[in-house]
Amino acid sequence: MRIIANVYIDGEFAVPHGREALVLVDPATERETTTVILADELDARRAIAAAKAAFLAFSQTSRAERMEWLQALSNAVAAAEADIVEVMVAEYGGTMAMAQGTARRAAASFSLARKVLADYAFEREVGGARMRMLPHGVVGMITPWNANTGFIASKLAMAIASGSTSVIKPSELSAAQTELITRVLHGAGLPPGVFNIVTGRGDTVGAEIARHPDIAKISFTGSTAVGKAIARTAVDSMKRVTLELGGKSPTVFLDDADFAKAMPLAAMAAVMNSGQACIAGTRLLVPRSRLAEASELAVRAFDALVVGPTHDPRVNVGPMVTRKQWERVQGYIERGVAEGATLLAGGPGRPAGLERGWFVRPTVFGEVRNDMAIAREEIFGPVLCIIPYDSDEDALAIANDTPYGLHGYVFGADPARTRKIADGIQAGRVFINGLYDIPEAPFGGVKQSGLGREFGVFGFEEYLEPKAIMGHDTRL
Ligand code: NAD
């Protein structure tokens, strides 16, 4: 069994002070693969101290220097693409397509941040005031397991561009992904202390970051429940917080949509990352008059999904990350049946031929009511709820009748109508008639899907604090 016992503090790899061992299991085989020695609060405090000590000098580096470092980081991550893919597939059962996309986006995060930095006006005049956009200080970053490398890269890229230093606490379930990306980032040769990485549990290292007075800002990606707990703690020292949380996103098929064309995309939106994606389109809203047709197409699309170990590139649904997550998905499938939804495809248990591993059957429920638990709660597995609606207004009302607001998808033939629905969906992002990847566009949620935005110039400004100086001598 492999042992990972690493923290990365002040530019050096060290053995953690923490002693707790966590055994990680390959979700495709249930075999124990790795023992991780977890960091503890003391490790977190050391990392915070290193980031604090590095901040002053780093905040005074020039734009050109930071642009160079961002390019070096982008190059380093791009060169490691094959390794990143391999470890994502092995550690949590990410599909090949997901792993490749994540690895590429991780490299692009740094080059895109470089681009934003190149053009950004840190100093400007507003009225007669001199405005300066300043870095926060030490940023705490807490990330989930489901595309760990991508989240670390996108957050770190912005912090570096802004001139802040960082303490990163990745999910304890992604120790191998973290070990790799840490080595890769280290290879880019940034000054010690600019970023520090400590893998530990949320209620120890994560909680320390949330409460420590020397952390000025937290950027968190994870569940809504944990995001709320972090925000509550963070307010005591008035930390700035960016929260990227869960979702229960609607996919609206308008009655003039080409369902045969739209369904493969809707299915992909529902099962991306094996359904373990915050932006998954898990509620499919279809006009009642075309419910039978939509249901049949959905069943066909879900039955065609290939479930299995993800080193096979044909597989589009891998295992759930842990036994706990598998049990959670099973629980929801059973609950959907008990609530009276019609089971159209999939169902409880493992797919035929897969006796081991945390595999679930891609499942479609028809005739779902939006007040059922399967339509309200984030399942985080390949489970689609088909909900009939009666008019465009009804579709919008159902789409927005959710505590979440991360994403939305609309399919239809009439551009004015699709646009009206896209405008009406309460969400941080909406896709019309396709799946897109525009990393400059802001990403984040409304309602309980989060606070603030990531990516592009909007994301960058979350890492900056405006300061206004009045009465200055304008000739200077
Ligand atoms: P999680 O909330 O359980 O954990 C996320 C991170 O928070 C982990 O690093 C964990 O160790 C840490 N954590 C746990 N308790 C903590 C505490 N008390 N204080 C500080 N940190 C703590 O989420 P997960 O299971 O790793 O990821 C899945 C969730 O993340 C889903 O809800 C999903 O929707 C969400 N997510 C959101 C986005 C987005 O961009 N909006 C992206 C991916 C995942």
Q: Describe it for me?
A:
This protein is α/β, with parallel strands linked by helices and about 475 residues long. It has 2 domains: about 1-245 and about 445-470, Aldehyde Dehydrogenase, Chain A, domain 1 (3-Layer(aba) Sandwich); about 250-430, Aldehyde Dehydrogenase, Chain A, domain 2. It contains 15 helices and 21 strands. It has an 8-stranded mixed sheet, with helices on both faces. Strand 13, helix 9 and strand 14 form a beta-alpha-beta unit. It is globular and about 70 Å long. The mean pLDDT is about 95. Nicotinamide-adenine-dinucleotide binds near residues 202 and 210. Nicotinamide-adenine-dinucleotide (NAD) binds near residues 169, 210 and 221.
Topology diagram in text:
Blueprint lengths: L1 E3 L2 E3 L2 E3 L6 E5 L6 E6 L3 H19 L3 H17 L1 H12 L3 H24 L3 E4 L2 E7 L2 E5 L5 H15 L2 E5 L5 H12 L8 E4 L3 H10 L5 E5 L2 H11 L5 E5 L4 E5 L5 H13 L9 E7 L3 H13 L19 H17 L2 E6 L13 E6 L6 H4 L6 E7 L2 H9 L6 E5 L3 H10 L4 E4 L17 E2 L4 H6 L2 E6 L7
Parallel strand pairs: 1-5, 8-9, 8-11, 9-10, 11-12, 13-14, 13-18, 14-17, 16-17, 18-19
Antiparallel strand pairs: 2-3, 2-10, 4-5, 6-7, 7-21, 12-20, 15-16
Helix pairs in contact: 1-7, 2-4, 3-4, 3-6, 4-5, 7-8, 9-10
Bound molecules: nicotinamide-adenine-dinucleotide.
The site of nicotinamide-adenine-dinucleotide has 29 residues, from helix 7 and helix 8.
